[in-house]
Design brief:
The protein is built from three helices and three strands; from the N terminus they run H-H-E-H-E-E. With 68 residues, the protein is an alpha+beta fold. The protein has one domain (2-56). The longest helix has 18 residues, at 2-19.
Length: 68
């Protein structure tokens, strides 16, 4: 489940950047935990629309939306 959640966020980040006209940044989004393994402290390296770095730690659950 965790891998599926991370994959969804990687796709979301890339598509959001493409929609904002930032194809250059979309190509640079990295799935850190998949490519480099666990231990970096975050799962995905992405970008804000202005190019600033954005580090994302993904948490997944199959529970209700308010599950802690």
């Amino acid at each position: 489940m965790g891998r599926a959640g991370e994959e969804r966020i990687v796709l979301h980040e890339r598509s959001s950047l493409v929609a904002a006209g930032r194809d250059d940044l979309a190509k640079r989004v990295r799935w850190i935990s998949e490519e480099d393994g666990a231990g970096a402290g975050y799962d995905i390296a992405s970008f804000e629309m202005d190019g600033r770095s954005r580090l994302i730690e993904v948490k997944t659950t199959n529970g209700w939306e308010r599950t802690p």
